[in-house]
Model the fold of this input.
Amino acid sequence: MPYPKRFQRLSNFISRMAGNPIAFFAALSIILVWAITGPIFGFSDTWQLAVNTGTTIVTFLMVFLIQNTQNRDASAVQIKLDELIRATSKAHNAILDVEELSEEDLRKLRQAYEKLAEKARHRLDIRKFEVNDKPRHRRAQHKRPRLG
Done:
C-alpha cells in the first residue's frame, strides 16, 4: 500500500478514535492519575515534565492528523457543492471554483450576492411565507450530462 494511502487511513482512524468519548475519558484518567501522584513525587520537576512532554508530543502530532482529515473533508464538501452547482439549471457554473479567487474578487462577489439577497428579502412577504416539502411549479428540466 502506498505511503500516502496508509497515512490517510491512519489519520482517519486516529481522528475517529480521538473524537470518541472513550478517548476523552482515557485522557482524563491519565491526567487524574498524574495529579493524584503529585504528592507522592513531591510535585517534582520530573513529575511536571512527564505530563508536559507527553501532552506536547500528542498535541503536536494531533495537529497534523486533524489538519489532514479536515483538508480531505473540506475537499469532499467542495466537490459536492460543485456538483450541486453544476446540476442546478439556474446556477452560474463560473462559481464552481470560486475558492480559487483572490480576496478582493471574493469580496466583490460576496457584495453582489448580498445585494441579491437584500432584493429578495424586500420582495418577500413574511406573512405569506411558509415552508413546505412540495416544490412549486417548475419549468421543464434540462437533461445534464452525467459524469463518468
